[in-house]
Amino acid sequence: MKYLMNYFSLPFMRNEISFCFYAEKKSRMGKYHVIHTKPCELLPEKPSRIKMGFFENFEEVEKAGRKQFGEVRFCSFCCDFS
Ligand SMILES: [Zn+2]
Q1: 19 three-state secondary structure
Q2: Distance of CA 67 from the midpoint of ligand 1 (Å)
Q3: Long-range contact list for 43-48, CB < 8 A, 24+ apart?
Q4: What parts of the chain have a pLDDT lower than 50?
């Protein structure tokens, strides 16, 4: 799975494709909301997530997330860019 996500994130970082992003409805420790991409295995079920839509880069997602939720963090499983 890890390999698969890395494989997908490469063209994504080059802005060739875009992913649909979701935010967890419940904040972690009342502090921040975690953002996932569509194929993530850790993505919560429909009632516990909020669809953010399609974005072409992480910067835009973060901006939109901050506007909507205040503080956001990217899921380290599906949005690992290190
Ligand atoms: Zn995730």
Answers
A1: strand
A2: 20
A3: 43/78, 48/24
A4: 1-2
